[in-house]
Design goal:
Blueprint: H1 9-35, H2 39-65, H3 91-112, H4 117-144, H5 184-210, H6 214-240, H7 263-286, H8 292-317, H9 330-335
């Protein structure tokens, strides 16, 4: 049999990133499983934990076979299961659902940067696992009344084509200019962004309550304000079109101020959510044809990027940012 080819730089990079994300999720699940008060929710999270843990093992084995150092990622030191509940009322499955949504995007992207069949298979399997548990979480939340569907619409009876440039109306430089009704693609993007930011808001409020470092606590508080502003602005856009906004009574933070996770883990999780938000915002901008919507999303993405950059500086300052594998320093090698 031919000798298996060495992994490429991109394969090493995506395996490294996946190890970071999956070890973080395992630590979060350990706490959420311990505090779960609903048997169905506990079953979903326990089964998910077993499947993720198995693939962390496969990634570890792959890296070891290549002679690569195993990343630190997130360990038992980053979670404390023996503290009061930080979240209540279905937040555990809401949180897991959002993590799985992020994972779906990451795994699909990682497959496009992988070549060796065994590594492609890892991401194909992880994609299937992620899709399965995303659906389980969605159906659980719908059954519990903790997830609001996007609004219904009258079904189209004929095919229509854009007739003139007024379809692009709603210029941001003139807030009083006439705007056409939102189309269903635009409503889908707005609804999704509001839903994600509402869940992210509850997450970061909990983080702000329990963070140990004052600088980190203030950072999370700033993130909560940013999420509020995004939810407010996008909700007003829907309401102006007579469209209901996604609201749920579930997933609130408790009064606990004792941290179940390390500041390092909470900062990394927030960074991951920022990256997801920027990617999702870019997609929404690309498919929105009413001029005022991309303008709003671009401002949000700028604010999120600046917020994420500030977070990266805090992580570096505290020694929490693990450095990805580097390419060879050719100039230094030549000097030798």
């Amino acid at each position: 049999m031919p000798e298996r080819s060495a992994i490429t730089s991109s394969e090493l990079g995506v395996l490294w990133l996946t190890y970071q994300e999956k070890t973080m999720i395992l630590r979060i699940l350990e706490y959420l499983i311990e505090k779960a008060d609903d048997e169905k929710a506990k079953e979903i999270m326990t089964n998910l934990y077993g499947e993720i843990d198995n693939y962390v093992g496969k990634i570890t084995e792959t890296l070891q076979n290549e002679g690569a150092v195993i990343p630190v990622g997130f360990t038992a030191q980053d979670v404390n299961k023996d503290v009061p509940k930080l979240y209540d009322n279905g937040f555990d499955i809401m949180f897991v659902r959002l993590l799985k949504e992020i994972s779906m995007g990451l795994h699909s992207l990682n497959i496009t940067m992988s070549y060796r069949e065994d590594i492609v298979l890892i991401f194909k399997d992880l994609t299937a696992i992620t899709q399965k548990y995303y659906n389980l979480c969605t159906q659980y939340l719908l059954k519990k009344g903790l997830l609001v569907k996007s609004p219904h619409v009258s079904m189209p009876k004929s095919v229509e084509f854009v007739k003139d440039n007024s379809y692009l109306g709603g210029l941001p430089i003139n807030p009083f200019s006439e705007k056409r009704s939102l189309n269903t693609v635009e409503v889908a993007q707005l609804h999704h962004s509001i839903e994600s930011n509402v869940s992210g808001l509850q997450m970061i409020i909990g983080f702000a309550q329990c963070a140990n470092e004052a600088e980190v606590k203030n950072y999370f508080n700033d993130g909560a304000e940013l999420a509020k502003s995004i939810v407010k602005e996008l909700s007003e856009t829907l309401l102006q079109g007579g469209i209901q906004t996604p609201q749920t009574s579930g997933g609130n933070a408790t009064r606990s101020t004792i941290a179940p996770f390390s500041d390092k883990l909470m900062m990394y999780c927030t960074s991951l959510f920022c990256s997801f938000s920027m990617g999702s915002g870019s997609l929404g901008t690309a498919f929105s044809l009413r001029n005022d919507l991309p303008a709003k999303m671009t401002i949000f993405m700028k604010d999120i990027f600046e917020y994420a950059h500030k977070g990266a500086k805090i992580m570096i300052k505290n020694g929490w940012m693990e450095e990805p594998p580097q390419m060879e320093e050719r100039k230094q090698l030549i000097k030798k």
